[in-house]
Amino acid sequence: MGVGVAGSVGQHWRVSEINREFQLCATYPPVVAAPARISDTTLTYAARYRSKARLPVLSYLHPNGVSMTRSSQPMVGLKQARSVQDEKLVEAIVATSEPTGMVPRFRNERNNIIIDARPTTNAVVNRAIGAGSENMDHYRQCRKVYLGIDNIHVMRDALNRLADAAVDAADVSATASDLGNAEPAGMMARIQSSRSSWLSHLQNILVGVKTIVEAIDAGHHVLVHCSDGWDRTAQLTSLAQLCLDPYYRTIEGFAVLVEKEWVSFGHQFTLRNGHLGHPDRFTVVRAGRKRVPEHSEDIEDIDRDVGETESADDGAQTGSSIFGRFATRAFRGVQSRISSAIQTASDNLDDIDYTDPFFAEYPELHPDYVRPVDPSTGTSAQQKRGFRLGRTKHDRETSPVFQQFLDCVYQLWVQHPTMFEFNERFLLDLFYHGHAAQFGTFLGNNMQERTAIQMQERTQRVWSVVGHDPQLYRNAVYQGDEAKREQRVILPEPRFVQYWSAMFSCHDPAFAKCTEPATRDELIVETASNDPTVRTDPDELTVKPTNLTDSDLALSSN
């Protein structure tokens, strides 16, 4: 859009190299775009006010001159801290669409939006750790919208529930088919009873995307952030650009979008997709040992509490010490039963012929692996055969963030089938390679890390395979230039979402027809901290997610 070019919509923006050596923000790209009248010194001070120093920078510039910027949460804290530099930066962003690059002094409309992707409660609770959300008294001409999108842990649990329900339903359906039962095994009932809320989460994301797209198309600036600004923020900004700019709906443009919004701006692919190697993700512990895996922090905390209880004064017959001894005995009993079950399962592994090539690469994980003799003791650390797998803290950082983004793209693709150059296989191959860890595109957690290990020189990009053959990945009904001329901006329809059966490898027709009850039908808008919270009319800002049957749609069309 001509950033820094006189006479263009980007004339009031400039390219800053303040982060070239990653000295300002390790998770931002070396080059960022900022308002032209904001100096690098102001950017440095503004970064101190944002979590992980992820200050507001340009993500997308629309042809009408308004911008979409992204950042992390402000460090407000319980003392309601503020940053004049951060406020000036946001004010300068709003002013970039003005002919003079300055906001008129007496304009008081709050048309521009600060998007907080989190639920309101989460944003408020974060104040206890020194973070929080913007105090709207200090941000002129802006209002704040909470989207209520849940965190990575909720999303991980939702996917696990859905996957388990789909597998169970498929197994039961196969069993019923083998027995000759005419009735299917209740795919819809099992999916709905799992309470995964996967579709509800997709609806919430699409509601936020629709809010952003409508605001930008109407000429209002949007600043998007969540907590750290690399998960929900990346979902919202990239999906909004898909809706706003037809270039990103092409195969080439989609590659640029992923590289820009996900790779360059520090989405943690290694952590979120669980790419850590097996020796790092699991700890091999002899089955006969009583000591728990040292990398299991939760169990360490329990052991620490138990140890403190055991060391309590036996003569002090207080209620807390009695309860502590009771809890200790109960915990030891449960631990003993679990250890016995694990030992029995490990002993049963002796009759299995392990020919998996995985153990050739990681021999220390093989049940028959014998540890070398310890020179200090002269004995081997190997005891009984069998091993236990202790999951590490990294597993708590895994979450289907990028997978959820691809699922939302699929929903847009279904709703607007002629507006996308790529087909479903394109998205499925990206989903596969995102977890296969074969390409450098989906490896690493940020640009600084990738630069340090020379990721670009040592690996290939996924686009050398996915999208390289236009005939393989081209959408047969794509309208091309005609679609760009007739409808540049598209809007998501949160009501009409469905399960992506191909992604879950569940081709039962009933799976795609499953629906979930809506969990939220309104956005929460805040204009200033001293004003009461305003709950907007759901029909004004978004479409309420509802469950519509075929008969309901027929009635509405009549």
Describe the structure.
The chain is of the alpha/beta class. Helix content is 41%, strand content 8%. The chain is built from 22 helices and 11 strands. The protein has a 7-stranded mixed sheet, sandwiched between helices. Strands 1-2 form a two-stranded antiparallel ribbon. Strands 8-9 form a two-stranded antiparallel ribbon. The longest helix is centred in the middle third of the chain and has 30 residues. The radius of gyration is 27 Å and the shape is globular. The C terminus is likely disordered.
* Structure summary, number of beta strands: 11
- Taking all Cα atoms into account, the compactness measure Rg is 27 Å
Mean pLDDT: 76
Secondary structural class? alpha/beta
Strand ordering within the main sheet: 3-4-7-5-6-10-11
Give the distance, in angstroms, between the N- and C-terminal Cα atoms: 44 Å
Largest sheet: 7 strands, mixed
Shape descriptor: globular
Task: Tell me the strand percentage band.
Answer: 5-15%
What's the total helix number? 22
Unreliable stretches covering 5 or more consecutive residues = 278-320, 345-359, 379-391, 517-521, 530-558
User: Residue share in helices?
Assistant: 40-55%
